[in-house]
């Protein structure tokens, strides 16, 4: 199973792709960050991030997409941008018929490190260990995206396969009605 993890952010949106052939054996496919300039209008920033997410979906062809669930923060402006980018990511995946899973930060921490209260450094260290990397991906958004993908492999693999099968069945039915 191939999973694209997305750590949504308006300035930096982490993107990480992980392959798994089952169990805990995982490998890094790609990691990076989509960026948008802070001096652009919000619509253009969302378009820039969306274009990059589309390119990653087309290039890496994941079986599922894992997005960090937006939670309430003290800075409303930050949470709004994060929520908007999450929506862009979910729509991009839905257009391709891909299942999308939302994982909370504590779910990701627990799945990757064993503790829902782990700090960023502990999670990053486990990302390096689980993917057998030489160094922690930078910036932190990139490492967080890989943690999301890993979390999904460890927690959501079975559900993703069910969702993918249902999506394929829906697509087949739609094609049958168009013919």
Automatic annotation (TrEMBL):
Question: Which GO molecular function annotation, any one, does this entry have?
Answer: crossover junction DNA endonuclease activity
Q: How is the cofactor bound?
A: Binds 2 Mg(2+) ion per subunit.
State the coiled-coil residue ranges: none
Cofactor(s) recorded for this entry are:
Mg(2+)
Going by the UniProt record, its keywords in alphabetical order are: Cytoplasm, DNA damage, DNA recombination, DNA repair, DNA-binding, Endonuclease, Hydrolase, Magnesium, Metal-binding, Nuclease
Source superkingdom: Bacteria
- Active site per the UniProt annotation: 7, 68, 141
Query: What family does this belong to?
Result: Belongs to the RuvC family.
| Protein's name in the database | Crossover junction endodeoxyribonuclease RuvC
Tell me the lineage of the source organism.
Bacteria, Bacillati, Actinomycetota, Actinomycetes, Propionibacteriales
